[in-house]
TrEMBL record:
Pfam families: AsnC_trans_reg, HTH_AsnC-type. GO terms for cellular component: cytosol. One of its GO terms (molecular function) is sequence-specific DNA binding. This is Transcriptional regulator, AsnC family. The keyword Transcription applies. The keyword Transcription regulation applies. InterPro entries: ArsR-like_HTH (IPR011991), AsnC-type_HTH_dom (IPR000485), Dimeric_a/b-barrel (IPR011008), Tscrpt_reg_AsnC-like (IPR019888), Tscrpt_reg_AsnC/Lrp_C (IPR019887), WH-like_DNA-bd_sf (IPR036388), WH_DNA-bd_sf (IPR036390). Keywords: DNA-binding, Transcription, Transcription regulation. GO terms for biological process: response to amino acid. Residues 7-68 form the HTH asnC-type domain.
Amino acid sequence: MSDSVVLDPVDLEILRLLQNDARTTYRDLAAAVGVAPSTCLDRVARLRRGGVILGHALRLDPAKLGRPLEAFLSVQVRPHRRELIGPFVERVRALPESRALFHLTGPDDYLVHVAVAGTADLQRLVLDEFTSHREVARVETRLIFQQWTCGPLLPAERPG
Protein backbone atom coordinates (compact mmCIF):
# COMPACT_ATOMS: atom_id res chain seq x y z
CA MET A 1 0.00 0.00 0.00
CA SER A 2 1.18 3.51 -0.72
CA ASP A 3 1.64 6.06 2.01
CA SER A 4 -0.97 8.76 2.44
CA VAL A 5 -0.12 12.24 1.20
CA VAL A 6 -0.40 15.39 3.31
CA LEU A 7 -3.10 17.57 1.77
CA ASP A 8 -3.95 21.12 2.74
CA PRO A 9 -7.49 22.59 2.47
CA VAL A 10 -6.82 23.95 -1.05
CA ASP A 11 -5.67 20.49 -2.23
CA LEU A 12 -8.78 18.92 -0.73
CA GLU A 13 -11.02 21.50 -2.40
CA ILE A 14 -9.31 20.89 -5.77
CA LEU A 15 -9.85 17.15 -5.38
CA ARG A 16 -13.46 17.61 -4.27
CA LEU A 17 -14.23 19.71 -7.35
CA LEU A 18 -12.36 17.47 -9.80
CA GLN A 19 -13.93 14.25 -8.54
CA ASN A 20 -17.36 15.72 -9.28
CA ASP A 21 -16.37 17.14 -12.69
CA ALA A 22 -12.97 16.11 -14.04
CA ARG A 23 -13.56 18.32 -17.10
CA THR A 24 -13.38 21.53 -15.04
CA THR A 25 -10.88 23.92 -16.63
CA TYR A 26 -7.84 25.00 -14.65
CA ARG A 27 -9.05 28.60 -14.86
CA ASP A 28 -12.45 27.72 -13.35
CA LEU A 29 -10.85 25.42 -10.80
CA ALA A 30 -8.36 28.11 -9.76
CA ALA A 31 -11.16 30.67 -9.37
CA ALA A 32 -13.22 28.25 -7.28
CA VAL A 33 -10.37 27.54 -4.84
CA GLY A 34 -8.98 31.09 -4.78
CA VAL A 35 -5.53 30.57 -6.32
CA ALA A 36 -3.84 31.65 -9.55
CA PRO A 37 -4.30 29.31 -12.55
CA SER A 38 -0.56 28.57 -12.62
CA THR A 39 -0.66 27.64 -8.92
CA CYS A 40 -3.67 25.43 -9.55
CA LEU A 41 -1.89 23.72 -12.44
CA ASP A 42 1.18 23.13 -10.23
CA ARG A 43 -0.97 21.68 -7.43
CA VAL A 44 -2.82 19.31 -9.77
CA ALA A 45 0.51 18.20 -11.26
CA ARG A 46 1.85 17.54 -7.74
CA LEU A 47 -1.28 15.54 -6.87
CA ARG A 48 -0.77 13.46 -10.03
CA ARG A 49 2.93 12.87 -9.29
CA GLY A 50 2.06 11.92 -5.71
CA GLY A 51 -0.41 9.31 -6.94
CA VAL A 52 -3.45 11.02 -5.40
CA ILE A 53 -5.01 11.67 -8.82
CA LEU A 54 -4.86 8.42 -10.74
CA GLY A 55 -6.28 9.59 -14.06
CA HIS A 56 -9.49 10.42 -15.82
CA ALA A 57 -12.05 7.80 -16.76
CA LEU A 58 -14.64 7.66 -19.48
CA ARG A 59 -17.59 5.48 -18.51
CA LEU A 60 -19.27 3.56 -21.33
CA ASP A 61 -22.58 1.70 -21.28
CA PRO A 62 -21.76 -1.96 -22.06
CA ALA A 63 -25.36 -2.66 -23.15
CA LYS A 64 -25.19 0.05 -25.82
CA LEU A 65 -21.96 -1.54 -27.08
CA GLY A 66 -23.55 -4.97 -27.50
CA ARG A 67 -22.63 -6.39 -24.09
CA PRO A 68 -25.82 -6.19 -22.01
CA LEU A 69 -25.06 -9.16 -19.73
CA GLU A 70 -22.68 -8.44 -16.85
CA ALA A 71 -21.44 -10.92 -14.29
CA PHE A 72 -18.96 -11.46 -11.49
CA LEU A 73 -16.72 -14.48 -11.79
CA SER A 74 -15.28 -15.75 -8.50
CA VAL A 75 -12.08 -17.60 -9.38
CA GLN A 76 -9.83 -19.91 -7.39
CA VAL A 77 -6.27 -20.33 -8.65
CA ARG A 78 -4.39 -23.40 -7.44
CA PRO A 79 -1.65 -23.44 -6.50
CA HIS A 80 -1.77 -19.78 -5.58
CA ARG A 81 1.86 -18.98 -6.38
CA ARG A 82 3.42 -15.80 -7.76
CA GLU A 83 4.71 -17.47 -10.93
CA LEU A 84 1.13 -18.48 -11.81
CA ILE A 85 -0.81 -15.43 -10.68
CA GLY A 86 1.24 -12.89 -12.65
CA PRO A 87 0.42 -14.46 -16.03
CA PHE A 88 -3.18 -15.13 -14.89
CA VAL A 89 -3.71 -11.46 -14.01
CA GLU A 90 -2.23 -10.26 -17.30
CA ARG A 91 -4.31 -12.72 -19.31
CA VAL A 92 -7.56 -11.68 -17.57
CA ARG A 93 -6.76 -7.98 -17.90
CA ALA A 94 -6.22 -8.45 -21.66
CA LEU A 95 -9.66 -10.01 -22.21
CA PRO A 96 -11.99 -7.51 -23.92
CA GLU A 97 -14.85 -8.77 -21.72
CA SER A 98 -13.03 -7.89 -18.47
CA ARG A 99 -14.21 -4.70 -16.78
CA ALA A 100 -12.40 -5.02 -13.42
CA LEU A 101 -10.25 -7.53 -11.58
CA PHE A 102 -9.85 -7.80 -7.82
CA HIS A 103 -7.37 -9.94 -5.83
CA LEU A 104 -9.15 -11.13 -2.67
CA THR A 105 -8.70 -12.87 0.63
CA GLY A 106 -10.98 -15.76 1.56
CA PRO A 107 -12.04 -18.83 -0.38
CA ASP A 108 -11.86 -17.11 -3.78
CA ASP A 109 -8.63 -15.60 -5.04
CA TYR A 110 -10.07 -13.25 -7.67
CA LEU A 111 -13.29 -11.50 -8.54
CA VAL A 112 -13.64 -10.60 -12.22
CA HIS A 113 -16.32 -8.21 -13.47
CA VAL A 114 -17.17 -9.07 -17.09
CA ALA A 115 -19.58 -7.76 -19.74
CA VAL A 116 -20.69 -10.10 -22.54
CA ALA A 117 -23.24 -10.29 -25.36
CA GLY A 118 -25.31 -13.06 -23.77
CA THR A 119 -25.31 -16.35 -21.92
CA ALA A 120 -23.60 -18.27 -24.75
CA ASP A 121 -20.79 -15.70 -24.73
CA LEU A 122 -20.52 -15.95 -20.94
CA GLN A 123 -20.30 -19.74 -21.15
CA ARG A 124 -17.62 -19.51 -23.86
CA LEU A 125 -15.66 -17.04 -21.73
CA VAL A 126 -15.78 -19.25 -18.62
CA LEU A 127 -14.90 -22.44 -20.48
CA ASP A 128 -12.32 -21.12 -22.95
CA GLU A 129 -10.62 -18.35 -20.99
CA PHE A 130 -10.83 -19.58 -17.41
CA THR A 131 -11.50 -23.26 -16.71
CA SER A 132 -9.41 -24.40 -19.69
CA HIS A 133 -6.31 -23.19 -17.83
CA ARG A 134 -4.78 -25.74 -15.47
CA GLU A 135 -4.24 -23.28 -12.61
CA VAL A 136 -7.94 -22.31 -12.46
CA ALA A 137 -9.45 -24.68 -9.90
CA ARG A 138 -12.96 -23.22 -9.78
CA VAL A 139 -15.12 -20.48 -11.30
CA GLU A 140 -18.43 -19.40 -9.81
CA THR A 141 -20.61 -17.06 -11.85
CA ARG A 142 -23.02 -14.45 -10.50
CA LEU A 143 -25.15 -12.39 -12.88
CA ILE A 144 -25.51 -8.68 -12.23
CA PHE A 145 -29.10 -7.49 -12.49
CA GLN A 146 -28.43 -3.82 -11.76
CA GLN A 147 -25.61 -1.65 -10.47
CA TRP A 148 -25.21 1.80 -8.99
CA THR A 149 -22.23 4.09 -8.72
CA CYS A 150 -21.61 5.05 -5.11
CA GLY A 151 -20.63 8.37 -3.62
CA PRO A 152 -17.37 10.25 -3.99
CA LEU A 153 -14.46 9.86 -1.59
CA LEU A 154 -14.72 13.49 -0.52
CA PRO A 155 -18.04 15.19 0.32
CA ALA A 156 -19.74 16.55 -2.79
CA GLU A 157 -20.42 19.84 -1.04
CA ARG A 158 -17.85 22.16 0.51
CA PRO A 159 -17.57 21.44 4.26
CA GLY A 160 -18.59 24.31 6.44
